[in-house]
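User: Please predict structures.

Assistant: First:
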Amino acid sequence: MHNDLEQSGENDRRRLESQLQLLEAQVQDSRTQLTEEQDNAEELSKTWEALVGAETSKKHLEDRIEDLTRQVQGSEEKLAVYERRSGTLGVPHSGQDMSKEQQLEAEVAELRAELKIAKVDLQAAREQCQQFESISQAAEAALESLQSTHEQYRTTTEAQFTRLEACSENKAFQEKLEAAQRGAIQATAQLNELQKTFEIERTAWTNDKKTLEETIIDLSTSEKHSESDRTSREQEVRLQEERAKAAEERYSNELVAHAESRKAIEALNAQLATSQVAVHDSQVAADTATAKLAASERSWNKQKETLDAEVAEVRRRHQALAEHNKLLHGHLEDVSSQAARIKQAATSSDAPAGGGEGAIGDDAKLSELRSLVGYLRKDKNISELQLDLCKQENLRLSKQVEHLMETLNETRATLSEERERAVQTAASVPEAVSYIVMST
């Protein structure tokens, strides 16, 4: 049983491998056919380019034929005029105007030579038209062969797609083939578009060919036209010349307007670039001012905190000195009262020697107290001077802070104005550009 299962699995694997190889071969064939189709499409594009070149040459030849036609018409008209003049004036003045007749004959000969040259050029133009016609026929044949090849490729591809769709186990290859089919459909659409374009061009070329043949027939029968037809042709030529001049004037005016619009657009672009640079500079200045403002505010806050701490310390010291001074004043008053009592006791005592020794001791104490009082007064004066200096420094810093705040407010106002002007400029420039584009 196990061997049977292994054998059946091996058979299935071989069958799938053979199917996979078959599908890979089919995919390779499809790729080869797709490459051939791409080569055919490239050849078709080259043929189309050759056809476009032929159409361009045909247009140049048509312009040349029109010029030759005009020259032939002018030569024929001059020839008819000279022949009429020679027929009417030759008989009565044969003996007197012999030189004029010779001149007229010479001019007629020159005009006939020019007419022959124009006819030769016309014949060459006809031959070139025939050559271009043969080229277009060859291009049509190549297009038909490419179309038949594409049809064969499409039928074979559809058959392969039909065979591949039957194998549900190879979805990856099916997706690749679907992609190739989409590419073939796109190539078919492009080929159809090229074929339609070629048909349109061929129809236009056929119409131009008919028009050219009619023009050639008209040129061959132009000698039979009357003077009125010549006058009408001259009027038509004048009208065409006037129309051409008017068209040239309109074209020149359009060119001038376009150049002015281009100059205006360039000026606006330069103005926009300048405005953008100014906005960028203003933004950089604003960012710098904001950073300086933040740094200044932090510095001012630190200085303010330091000054507040110093002022609090000075006030505390001043209060301590005032209390100490008050205490010293109390001691001084006590010492003064004691000294007064001692003096009174010294004057009223009976024992002068003992009183003299007590007075000397009291004087020594009094001098010490006076020196202490002097020192305390000096310390008080120094503390008062330091307090005044701190007050003046605090006042100066307050004024400096006020000045810096005013400068900061002015800077903020200037910055807001610059931002508003930048926004207005950025909003006005696209409107101006759109207005110019709409006007052009």
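Second:
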Amino acid sequence: MFEINSAPQVNLQNQSFVAYAGKVLGGGSIVNGMGYDRGTQPDYDAWGELGNDGWNWDNLLTYFKKSSTFTPNKAETLSKYNYTYDLSAYGTGPVQVSLPEWQYPEMPAFWDAMDEMNINKVQEGALGEPGCFWVAASTDPKYQTRSSARSAYYDPITTRSNLKVVTGIQVQEIVFSTLTAKGVKLLDRDTGKTYTAYADMELILAAGAIHTPQILQLSGVGPASVLKAAGVKVKVDLPGVGNNFQDHPAAYLMYNLANDTTINTNSLTNNATFNATSYDEYVANKTGPYTQAHGNGAAFLPLSKIAPDNYKSIVEKLSAQNATAYLPEMYSAYPELVAGYEAQRKIQVEQFSSDAASMYEFSFQGGGFAITALQKPTSRGTVYIDPSNPSGEPIVDYHGLKNPVDVDLLLASIRYTRQIYNTTALSVFEPVELTPGAKYQTDDELKSQIASGLVYPTFAHPASTCAMMPRNLGGVVDSGLQVYGIKKVTIIDASIMPMIPGTHLQATVYAIAEKAADIIKARHGA
């Protein structure tokens, strides 16, 4: 893993948070939580509304399906856990998707709590509808092992003579002839040797939302002031590179279940015998608790559901803001960045007023660990090369909760999660709130807890630092994923998402990649 300490977060008591990225063949798909879900339909329609023809829910659904295969469970498992799914949401693609053969015994009570909260139960969460549903995992059910970008896409073609993969390599910069990319300068981390690899057709950047903007900036493509401060010659002043950074801020509530089930979500950690027998069961039969990733229950809900009494006031507050008041300093120098944010804000106002777009996530597998994640942050962060060490890790600044609307959204989210744990359905467990603690009730009391450790500005879902938007809106790539101002550079990763969708990101990144493959093949007549 790359583990990059963020810049101190002013609105989180100057704490620094680790920005994670996969440092392995297969990237984030090797180390993520394996949730294989999708955002609501408006999340992807928003991309088209921002000037990207061919990028919307209906178009991307084709590629969501193309990338994945869902395998239903055995009939007795489906009946035991009341699993629901819809095969029409999937295709016959290489990423294997499934639900585990085992769930913790607390789960039925949590589904009862969803019913008690009148949360819409969705048969298939991958068809773009908000509600609560079973979240599939990127698990190959045949072997009960992780299905990753490596196992799905790379391993089957390793013997191709025209494919060479090198590891332990750092891209130092793109090599240009005038403004046409010719190759990349590479550094072997082990030997310190540098060399150049050349491309005949085009370069594809897929280094992720943290390192893709860094590579562009090191290559002279990005905000001029950032490049000049680091001593990099400016080739193209492209202000969107490294701006518009988004992630999912998350509140980590914790409950003690005083009357929990005998076997529960803490058993693998606290019960050595249960851990050993569970591991032996997995090795022998590929069944039991070790077939789980990080839980499969989730509620993705609109603002109007979690805050029916005050969502309109939150929307009005966002609408009335001076756009530059809570944006990074860089925005003041580039009207196009402000215009892009204003276009996004208009969409967010519509989404926050809609019953069709989720902004709240509550994932559950039983137990008292109650993660509550904000799906549509209004703050925007930055990723810039470090002027004191440009070739080192970039400066990652979430600008976490800089926009006070994010705090309002988190307050509503925390209160809604508390309602879930206060249901009659969960009362059988006798839950006692440990974090932040039931004594914190007022807005000011909760805000102090939010700032002092209850909330992280990241859910390890970095996105949007090379946004696909028109250049006059601060975009970095066009709808063909090609970087503005230079030739033969295409970006294919989470950095191109103009607005982060309300979901775990891996399924969306696979869909982007499948669509990008068709775009590139069409571009070259293949």
